[in-house]
Amino acid sequence: MAAPTIFILLLLALTIVLIAVIVFRPGITATRGGKMMAFLVLFALPVLCAGMGGSAELQHAKSTEFCLSCHIMEPYGKSLLVDDPGHLAAAHFQNHRVPPEEACYTCHTNYAMFGGVRAKLGGLKHIYVYYLKTPPAPEDIKLYEPYHNRECLHCHAGARSFEEGAVHTADPDLLPALRANRTSCVSSGCHDVVHNVRSLKDAKFWKGSN
Amino acid sequence: MLSSNPLERNLQISGIILIFGLVVEALCLLGRGPISFLVFTGLGGLTFALGIAYYLLALVRSGSGGA
């Protein structure tokens, strides 16, 4: 368990004990000091605990482990280990082009205004479909909307490999089209092998760095 | 167990609600999946907000009652 989580749990335990003191000995709130303690224990500490706990939960919700904890996502997790540099997701994951501990979130969040909120709402929709509707087979899962180049360009814009790459500069119209999202990075025949969970049974897998 | 003094009784009730909410949040922090996230924000967040609101309301009521 991570150290911040242990700290939050200890703070929660302390707050619960202090609240219990007020519940069992409400008479101590009669004095001025007791009233100040009640404010601290029944307002300030719980707000602090909930804030820190909420922040920890939101941070954890970005983790690769969290995304892959649903059984339906298993093949997508497996696709990150395909031993083929042509697999976009695998190449990004294995070469740390995205932080491996937040691999899913890094590519699938929305880098526009309130993108994090939209990503969280999308996650809630996943849970709704997973538990209350009939979830599709892993290979039939589709994005809610076409993948936007903005998410790729969040990291790649300005990078030499992107700006001066031979294929990218061969056609002078290509870079402006990519920046304007008129030509998709992932569905225009260039980087279109992303997760390809249908073909995983024939794939060779990287064993990992540890 | 509940005090006969109205303010103290309200503080006890808000404390009990808060303890429930904080216990739920603590248990959810131990969980790793989406369900624990949902319970944390839904049940934990709701009872936490309810406990805080009850406490603040008790203070307002006691203030207006004493004036």
List the defining traits of the structure above.
heterodimer, A: 210 residues, 11 helices, B: 67 residues, mainly alpha, 2 helices
- Say how many strands of chain B there are: 0
**Beta-strand content of chain A:** under 5%
General form of chain A: elongated
Largest sheet of chain B: none
Uncertain parts of chain A: none
How would you classify the helix and strand content of chain A by structural class? mainly alpha
Number of E strands of chain A? 0
Helicity range of chain B: over 70%
Order of helices and strands of chain A: HHHHHHHHHHH
Approximately how much helix is present in the residues of chain A?
40-55%
Low-pLDDT sequence parts of chain B: none
Distance between the termini of chain A: 19 Å
Average per-residue pLDDT of chain B, rounded, comes to: 90
The dominant shape of chain B is elongated
Mean pLDDT of chain A: 92
Report the end-to-end length of chain B measured between terminal Cα atoms: 28 Å
Order of helices and strands of chain B: HH
Radius of gyration of chain A: 24 Å
SS-derived structural category of chain B: mainly alpha
Number of helices of chain B: 2
Question: Could you describe the 3D structure shown?
Answer:
With about 210 residues, chain A is mostly helical. In chain A, helix 1 runs antiparallel to helix 2. Chain A contains 11 helices and no strands. Chain B is an all-alpha fold and about 70 residues long. Chain B has 2 helices and no strands. The interface of A and B includes residues 23 and 61 of A.
How are the SSEs placed, and which strands pair?
The complex is a heterodimer of chains A (210) and B (67).
Chain A: H1 3-24, H2 32-60, H3 64-67, H4 74-79, H5 88-94, H6 103-108, H7 115-132, H8 149-156, H9 160-163, H10 166-170, H11 174-179
Helix pairs in contact in A: 1-2
Chain B: H1 6-30, H2 34-66
Explain briefly what this protein structure is.
The complex is a heterodimer of chains A (210) and B (67). The mean pLDDT of chain A is 92.
